[in-house]
Each structure stands twice: as C-alpha cells, then as structure tokens.
Write a structure and sequence with these properties.
Shape: globular
Structural class: mainly beta
CATH class: Mainly Beta
Number of domains: 1
Strand content: 35-45%
CATH topology: Immunoglobulin-like
Radius of gyration: 17 Å
Length: about 140
C-alpha cells in the first residue's frame, strides 16, 4: 500500500509540474499542408524522435500559426519545425546535397546555410509556469 501511495504521489507531483508551451510559427504564406512541431529533450533524439507532446497542426489560414504543446515536464528542450506542405510527415529534400524543399525552422532561429544546427544551438528552458517561443521558417 505504501508503494502505491508513493507512486500516486509522484504522478501527482509530475502532473503539477507540467507546463504548456505556446509555439508561434512565422512564414506560412498559403493554406497548404500541415506543420510538424517536434520537441526534443535529448540530443540523441534531435530531429528524429520528438516527444509525444509534440503538436501537428493542419494549416487552416495563411499567417502566423499558433500551437500549444501541453503537459511538458519543465526542463531543457529543442524544437524543430517543418511545414509539411504535401503532408507526408517528413522534410522533403532534393539534389546531391539534400537541400530541403519545404520550409523548416529551429528554436533560437540559428543559421542553417551550412546545414542543420547542433542540438545545443537550439536548446531553451521550459520553466514550471510554461512559456512562449517563436520560430521563423526558412526556405
């Protein structure tokens, strides 16, 4: 019984420490496709395995898109965003250098001219009270 109560208490504590993060995505200029917003909490998962709270939002209008990731444990995260215009759930690329053909962006809006940024260039803190972040898409 003691173990059950301890587990219940830990679950309640984690629920109390869950934060919501509002993500604003800039650069959507037409009604087309969906936006994949990937939250990553580990460097080894960066750009490949987003956490389950990562939102996917259908584009319903041109202009800034606002989505909310709910119930994130406070901590350090990274964000990668893809405007998946053909709704195939991947960032489409072409050519020898695998240049992206769909708009994308990262938290902290780092330069991407020489390829994708490093995880540590894109990390940010999600405090207990949650927060807001803005991502500018690049082509």
């Amino acid at each position: 019984m003691k173990g059950f109560l301890l587990t219940l208490g830990l679950l309640a504590t984690n629920a109390l420490l869950a934060a919501d993060v509002e993500v604003t995505v800039l650069g959507i200029d037409e009604v087309k496709g969906q936006v994949l917003i990937g939250f990553f909490d580990k460097e080894e998962d960066f750009q490949e395995n987003p956490i389950p709270q990562s939102p996917l939002v259908k584009v319903m209008e041109a202009g800034p898109l606002v989505a909310v990731a709910k119930d994130l444990p406070p901590g350090i995260y990274s964000l990668a965003v893809i405007w998946d215009q053909n709704m195939n759930n991947v960032l489409d690329k072409k050519g020898f250098f695998a240049k992206p053909v769909e708009p994308y962006g990262f938290s902290n809006n780092p330069g991407t001219a020489l390829g994708p940024p490093k995880y540590e260039e894109t990390t940010f803190l999600v405090p207990e009270e949650g927060g807001k972040i803005t991502i500018q898409l690049v082509d």
